[in-house]
Design a protein that fits this description.
This is Plasmid replication, integration and excision activator. Helix content is 6%, strand content 34%. The chain is mainly beta. The protein has one domain. The protein is globular and about 50 Å long.
Length: 154
């Protein structure tokens, strides 16, 4: 079976983020592109709708402590949900907000700059929740990052 263009692959949170993930910044709504002409005409911004679910898209940036390369330590995730997700509270005495993503999918995408080419991933989720008191993330193992390269989102 060949992979269809735009195909998304389900993946467990613990597989993609073996040491967990931490919210950096805020959850923001994603809007459709608006041309200069549309801005001059004061056309209202429209929310971007996820083509697979038909739900509005929100964006959040996560810190990934398991990333080996500096460029992969920050991951932008798109969350398709009816309402804007509310991030969990920070850990007492720290700025860190650990989170678990639900309904996690990845979509490979080819990137190019000049003659250099590489694969990145669009990371999407259907929701987020706080980390359980006992922790839900498995311990990192050398093989858990074997297939993971870059995790940039569009």
């Amino acid at each position: 079976m060949a992979a269809r263009p735009g195909m998304r692959f389900n993946i467990e949170f613990d597989e993609w983020f073996p040491q967990g993930a931490f919210i950096v910044g805020d959850v923001t709504a994603v809007t459709e592109y608006q041309s200069q002409e549309d801005k001059q005409r004061n056309k209202p911004l429209r929310p971007r709708i996820d083509e697979a679910s038909g739900l509005p898209v929100f964006r959040v940036t996560l810190a990934d402590p398991s990333a080996e390369k500096d460029r992969d330590k920050s991951v932008t995730v798109e969350i398709a949900a009816k309402v804007q997700p509310v991030p969990p509270a920070a850990l007492p005495g720290t700025p860190f907000r650990p989170v678990v993503l639900e309904g996690l999918t990845i979509q490979p995408r080819a990137e190019a700059s000049g003659q250099a080419k590489w694969i990145t991933y669009v990371v999407r989720a259907t929701g987020m929740r706080p980390v359980d008191a006992g922790g839900t993330v498995k311990a990192s193992s050398p093989s858990s990052d074997a297939g993971k390269t870059s995790a940039k989102a569009a």
